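Summary: Need help interpreting a holo structure output

Steps to reproduce:
1. Submit the protein chain below together with the SMILES for zinc ion.
2. Request a joint structure prediction with the ligand placed.
3. Inspect the structure token block that comes back.

Expected: a single structure record containing both the chain and the bound molecule.
Actual: see attached output.

Input attached:
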Amino acid sequence: MSEVSVLYDGYSNVDEEGYMTANCTCTLIKGEHNIIVDTMTPWDSDKIIAALQKHNLKPEDIHYVVSTHGHSDHTGNNNLFLKAKHIVGFSISFHDKYYLHPFEKGEDYVINESVKVAPTPGHTLSDVTVLVRTTEDETVAIAGDLFERQEDIEDSNLWLDAGSEDPDQQRKNRLSIADAAHWIVPGHGPMFQVTDDVREFLKRQLDYIDKGD
Ligand SMILES: [Zn+2]
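--- attached output ---
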């Protein structure tokens, strides 16, 4: 089993003048491998180092860095972790070596018995979600911008307005991740529980679209 700790809750806000401020949720997984998911903006390195210190970890203790997709607020400090294998969306690398993995065929990348990386395109065409078994019967999905924040379950405009390169795929993947997980760590908000109501909402949005065309 592995343990999930959210180091920083992400956020996204638009102010009165129309400027957006945003940063991603940054998450640590501890277990057989130490893994950091989404490394915030390049100006946040001190914050990440300080948060790791509270877990008695240094950047060189991290075995994998996962950026759920390639946007700048999710990759900003990947180069703090030079001992780690880097997974950025569908791309897996270490130094100048690239590992081919058929994410585009829907295949998960297994890190260990309790952690795997699943392809969940939509927000970008190469988004991934990290699925972590935290107990015998509990799974946490660290989903990046597949989910913007909890409120986007009821208000689809929140994730659509955040940018979606393929809304239909994103809708399907939102439901399949909700079906697979008990908790979701979204890209720009605090972790939330997946209730039956949440799954029902996501399913209805999919049915509505399927009938709509
Ligand atoms: Zn984002």
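--- end attachment ---

Reviewer comment: The helical segments are 45-54, 72-75, 157-161, 167-180, 196-212. The two ends are 43 Å apart (CA to CA).
Status: needs-info
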